[in-house]
């Protein structure tokens, strides 16, 4: 009888202590933490719209490549794999609002959208920086079980932008010129062709690589290795394995902005040879025209020291039908200059206005 009294007294004390600590009795039976339930999406789901150049096993490396989709709300998770040598970043755009995601080496799961309210939301996952920064592989995509995917937004046209560091958005968010180009300050989503594409409601593919040219690269040695027209032939130019299939993407307009690097280091390598440059340009035109006979080609240059190229490009428009030239305006002040004297986002916006207007007036 005494033992049972002691037991009653013991439990009474425990209950009093629990009450005084403010602990809900029902909570004692629940696990310490609960992970929100999720369901994986088939990466071949037709509701997913892959953008740019993405391989069958969902690898992408080029600026602006990735995917877009609509979801009815809740949380969205994505898993990515990058190798130990890769330092890559993505742009996560939710209903037009952009944020950067810096990826860790190996395979990791990321919460890319949190507590989206009931209703349709557009989510885009795009490579923030260029192919030289490495390949990203999407390995899993998941949403909450109570939500579903909806078709991704449609586009009214297609634009292919081919270029060098300027087109990649090199250092475009740098606050000082001496910052150069970093994982954080290179933002392809804020590059001129990406901004113009949004203005035009055009689906965009960017093929770019810093330091590369049409007839010769910026480098002093081996400046004909890995020219942009050579890199154009691959899904993943940094790996140069799987050949790009031109039938996958049929653009209405192709912008080519190559020549700044051809002009570079002239004091060391000698002045750019006009004939060699225009011959290489014409050969690339022939390649693009063979793939896309009806496309309109735009030959562009600028705004970084275009030199005589700005006078040469109109000659190509005379020789080639359904083409035009576009000379981006020069800098008007320091506020337009980003890393290593490349265009700042403010200048990219002005270039985007020029490009969008040019296309609208064709």
UniProtKB/TrEMBL annotation:
Residues 161-307 form the SGNH hydrolase-type esterase domain. Gene3D superfamilies: Galactose-binding domain-like, SGNH hydrolase. It holds the Pfam family CE2_N. Residues 50-153 form the Carbohydrate esterase 2 N-terminal domain. It comes from the Bacteria. CDD domains: Endoglucanase_E_like (cd01831). Coiled coil: none annotated. This is GDSL-type esterase/lipase family protein. It comes from Thalassotalea fonticola.
